[in-house]
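Recall that a protein's primary structure is simply its ordered list of amino acids. Everything else, from secondary elements to tertiary packing, is in principle encoded there. The following example makes that idea concrete.
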Amino acid sequence: EMAVSFEVPTIDISAFDGDDPVASAAVVDAVRAACENVGFFLLADRGGVSEDLVRDALAASRGFFELPLDEKMRVASLKKGYIPVDGCDNAVRPTSLHEKFSCSRVDLATVDRSDPYYDPSASPQAELYFGEDNRWPGAPDGFRDAWERYYVAMESLTRRLLRIFARALRAKGGDDFFADRCRRHVSNLVALRYPPLDGSGGAAIEERVRAHTDPTDVTILAFERGPQGLQVLPDGADDWLDVPDVQSTLLVNLGDVLRFWTNDAWRSTRHRVTARPRGARAGVPSGVPSGLD
């Protein structure tokens, strides 16, 4: 019996919406294979997202994290805003090894707040997701603009991915089968900074992020200096695999919701971040859960 070969592939999805049906089908086939085998893939050319948008979002994030702690704490919040090192208990990330900033949807000023779905007084779920406004730091200059533009770009890219997923699964509702069910999403955009390790652990590998799967549909990640230490453990694999560092890509990983929606045909793969002592690193993951209902 031949051993299954696991790898995190790089896929160019630009032909999906093009005029060449053969090239479009090849995109769908490549995505389907990645989702069935490993649950992770890299998007060539950032999936069509402007390099400037990604650069600006990462630069804004680093600029914020480099501010004095008391300035960052002005936008502290366990829901939307800043969480410092050791700022909260987390089952996935040891709190001594990261700090975080997050926001939720950037278009809530345009939704109908009389709709019980968006009314914080209507249910505990609505209070959790819509009970607080995003908290935006006053510095660095341009932070909010960079983040809001990046958030909108991730929404658009996610809709495109969901259309590819629907075609790959031959969904009876057509290409918009999943996208239609995520219109009222509660997605978070998160920046994580892992401060430098002090070297006290010697050469031992330390888990900055413990092994876990994501409780979402799909997560899209951008890295400042590549996916250093990010490893995946596909079902049936003998050992952890390093995610390759490929220039000008975004990393996509499937979450538990898609595994559930596909009756386990697609993978929500365990992954972790390991580290040996080195400099700080930053990344911007965009998690996309479906709507509450």
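The two ends are 44 Å apart (CA to CA). The first helix runs from residue 21 to 37.
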